[in-house]
Predict the 3D structure of the following.
Amino acid sequence: MKSETDKMKSNYHADQKGYYGKFGGSFVPEMLYPNMEELQQNYLKIMEDSSFKKEFNALLKDYVGRPSPLYFAKRLSEKYNTKIYLKREDLNHTGAHKINNTIGQILLAQRLGKKRIIAETGAGQHGVATATVCALAGLDCTVYMGEIDIARQAPNVARMKMLGANVVPAISGSKTLKDATNEAIRAWINNPVDTHYIIGSVVGFHPYPDMVARFQSIISEEIKWQLKAHENTENPDYIVACVGGGSNASGAFYHYLENEDVQLIAVEAAGKGVYSGESAATSILGKDGIIHGSRTLLMQTEDGQITEPYSISAGLDYPGVGPQHAHLFNSKRATFLNATDNEAMQAGLELCKLEGIIPAIESAHALAILKKKEFKPSDIVVVNLSGRGDKDLNTYIDYFKL
Ligand SMILES: *Cc1c(COP(=O)(O)O)cnc(C)c1O
């Protein structure tokens, strides 16, 4: 194992100021400095503490249900004439990888003596994962959610309420995820002392991208020993993951970043087509900019106004990517591909028919590249199945007229 300081010297992990190459950092209003500095100074210390690790690992095992299986998808492999493994984050409690991060952050918040939790959510998946861990820890929970998303995602709003969270509509701007994030940051400025803000992806200012990646790194930690048991090697030829903000991809890539024999494939949502004006393919359409306190690639107009992203999957519908992904793209360490709504929906249905697994539409974007990229019969391809499709049933029903 590398020490934490070694990681900071690596090309692909955050440095001490939260930079990945030229991306990352912390561009926040002065009123947030005390909160930010408290986190920056304490997150590694807390995460490396043995009592923290013990509690985190016990909850991942007994509450989340980890390790999540690494499943050899036989019929899918036959169809694409290569060896495909699915990392089953869909089997986690609450149905996706997001709980890995919220469990970590709630334990951290408790150690910082915080009494209240705030969070932003788009489709409601991160809101549900946050409300869940707040119930678990007995902490007060407020989730900011765009007014439009509240209307679109009624079942998740109901789940959050059942779990005891207070759901507050964000009524500014486009009334979606980025506005909910702005509201959450504003609320934090107003309640700095007793409140912790749980961000749901590897976005935002330092230390969030690095902290969230570390909590999600359990995904690649498990892939290593699980693949060893299946194939007698820790290293696949490819790891494929969808990218919204980038947390499931960061977790699936984490322990392979330095091993350049393992090719990393990040899949973005191309919506109705990359250049259709309705897309979320940030690596192609984005330019350097600052969003939510971090320098990264960002979809924006000539004069720097953020462009509304679009994808059929609400979880990929973010106008930026985390700074690590901007760096992985720029340095060419990862290959960025994309899938349209239709390609993802077809790939989702194909997984249902071939493997009996209904994937989240986000995860279906990762599966869609099996049709777009040739793999050799001997290649080992690990696809991170970030979540299950129950939440997307209405979208599947409407799309396929079921
Ligand atoms: C939220 C979500 C995503 C996108 O978020 P990342 O931070 O990019 O991982 C992907 N898949 C599922 C199932 C999600 O819920």
The chain has 17 helices and 14 strands. The CA atoms of residues 105 and 227 lie 28 Å apart. The pocket of pyridoxal-5'-phosphate is lined by residues 96, 98, 125, 201, 242-248, 315-316, 360, 362-363, 386-387 (CB under 6 Å). Residues 19-59+98-211 form a domain with the Rossmann fold fold (CATH 3.40.50.1100).
